[in-house]
């Protein structure tokens, strides 16, 4: 698949160095920071609201991650979201764990009122967010939420949410990644199963989206390119290790590919999927 808009400026993906402000969980903080550095971005993991007035005058995009929640972190997320709206900072919200508790879902919906450009989660999390039956457990998605009928139903519901939240596009990640905008729905098909066996892969995808938004790409382009780039890195990594795949070796190769695939000529030609 090569959407028409990808014929423009494809030589510039990940070539700039935006400053990405991350309010995120401690569990995958290092992986996210490294992923941003590997694609020429500059991460700052800052969650103290006393800095926000100065920071939002410098940063190019904001990434909010609900992964490790506490009363203090909830305040940080809400305040940073309000600053982003005030400064018109492109924002990605990763609704980690909304399948696990109503508290996270309530927070996610509150953050969405501040008009983020992207709301993302795994398929089970996104189904829970939009009031569809979800089989997610904790922060993990469930295979039964990823069959074609389930994805079609989810995409239809997310399309309704683009009317309710007209400034926001939605991403549901899984074996098939679903992107829903006001204009189109994408079903992306790249990736390997091993990506689900590593902590923080979804968080890193969120970071890549924020990177592209921070360098001025459109929301649609940022979503398609970030998701596909990460999944193609997973495919390349799986080819570099022995069989059966040792997960620690796969993870190291995945991180290597994040920093090298972008230098290969026209890697986006390998994007698979369809647009509806």
Automatic annotation (TrEMBL):
Cofactor field: Mg(2+)
Pfam families assigned to the protein according to its UniProt record, in alphabetical order: HK
Pathway: Cofactor biosynthesis; thiamine diphosphate biosynthesis; 4-methyl-5-(2-phosphoethyl)-thiazole from 5-(2-hydroxyethyl)-4-methylthiazole: step 1/1
Top-level lineage group: Bacteria
Name this protein carries in UniProt: Hydroxyethylthiazole kinase
Role this protein plays: Catalyzes the phosphorylation of the hydroxyl group of 4-methyl-5-beta-hydroxyethylthiazole (THZ).
GO molecular function, one term: ATP binding
Catalytic activity, as annotated: 5-(2-hydroxyethyl)-4-methylthiazole + ATP = 4-methyl-5-(2-phosphooxyethyl)-thiazole + ADP + H(+)
Any Gene Ontology biological process: thiamine diphosphate biosynthetic process
Family, as annotated: Belongs to the Thz kinase family.
Keyword Protein biosynthesis: no
Binding positions (substrate): 45, 200
The organism of origin for this protein: Vagococcus fluvialis
Alphabetical list of HAMAP family matching this protein: Thz_kinase (MF_00228)
